[in-house]
Amino acid sequence: MTGQQPHPDPSQQPAGATPGWTPPPSGGTWYPHGMTATATLPPPLVPAAPARRAGRVRIGVAGLLAGALIGGGAGAGVVALTAGGATAGTSPVAAQSVVIQDPESATAVTAAAAKASPSVVTVYVTSGSGSGSGSGVVLTDDGYVLTNNHVVTLDSSTDSATVQVRTSDGTLYDATVVGTDPTSDLAVIRLQDASGLTPATFADSDDVQVGDLAVAIGAPLGLSDTVTDGIVSATNRAVATGSTQDDATVIDALQTDAAINPGNSGGALVDAAGEVIGINTAIASVASGAPGSSSQSGNIGVGFAIPGNTAKRIADEIIATGSATHAVLGVSAQTATDGSAGSEVGTGAQVVQVQPGGAAADAGLQAGDVVTAVGDRPVTSSTELTAAVRSAAPGDDVTLTVRRGGETTTVEVTLGSSAG
């Protein structure tokens, strides 16, 4: 693959723009829902802003499974559910609670799981085109639950599915979708006639550090109340999921090596105190088969979660209004390189187009400017610029480091707002 192709800031394209495509760093491709890498990518298009975006990562990594939905009418390679509701190849698994049997020998993982597991549920979704299952996190005692958009929409294949939720005590509830936010891959559902549920406690995800204990709780392969542990491998990891240019989501993620598999989508990533630091949403998978074929690999120690602060803000907005807002800069951008032939090593996000009347225009940004940092966070690609902006809230003030010509300066920007 040669050259750089436009990668816009996905939530802020000018009106009438045409979807664009982004070349990833060298190596395989991250795709949601088990789609594998293709040998070639589409040619460059006019930069714009699809909701979700595919990108490439290091050699050997070919799939970013946005997160592990089990089943679904769309999305090649997912694990189907049988007519009886069981995961293919397994028997139905009853819900179980994590109980500390011997406090004197309990580990930090045991304690974290015991606190958080009552707040994690299994989500079952059925439509005329298929069925699937994922996970969710209880927000309120009267039944609001946070999960992934791709769980309740069956991998974006349907807008009208039947949703049921099983809590950790085994109770099965009917549920309705309160609202979805495809831009962040989040959704809120509400259990009918629920009371006395155990809401999750959210930690400040801005305080998470690399090396912190990370415990993933959810229903991988339909196995409710499954607990896996690891560490936080990276913070502020800009990843782009999506099997096509039209269904991409850029996530400013927490990366973890805690085992995350199909079915963990929408479940909790918690810290040593059992407090939610992220909502599990995607995993990387190793390429399998010929280019263009489909696969659904499991955990390889590279999983991603939406930071808890972002997830909680969006969930609160959906509960209050039915939808969510996002910070926007008001530019289309592409990854800048050092100019050497065939180089794909990013040196910043180059502004291709500035939206009139947007936040960037008000701050004086111009086409050709190269953004190299947002605050103290380095930016080496357009994906990283998008993720950094997405991690902020509408109306936040940010400082951009901008290279214009041979000079570098800083620009203060008040971010705009757009609906998801």
UniProtKB/TrEMBL annotation:
Residues 27-36 have a biased composition (Low complexity). It comes from the Bacteria. One of its GO terms (biological process) is proteolysis. Pfam families: PDZ_2, Trypsin_2. SUPFAM superfamilies: PDZ domain-like, Trypsin-like serine proteases. InterPro entries: Chloro_Bact_Ser_Proteases (IPR051201), PDZ (IPR001478), PDZ_sf (IPR036034), Peptidase_S1_PA (IPR009003), Peptidase_S1C (IPR001940). Residues 1-36 are annotated as: Disordered. Residues 318-406 form the PDZ domain. Residues 1-13 have a biased composition (Polar residues). One of its GO terms (molecular function) is serine-type endopeptidase activity. Keywords: Hydrolase, Protease. This is Putative serine protease PepD. It comes from Geodermatophilus nigrescens.
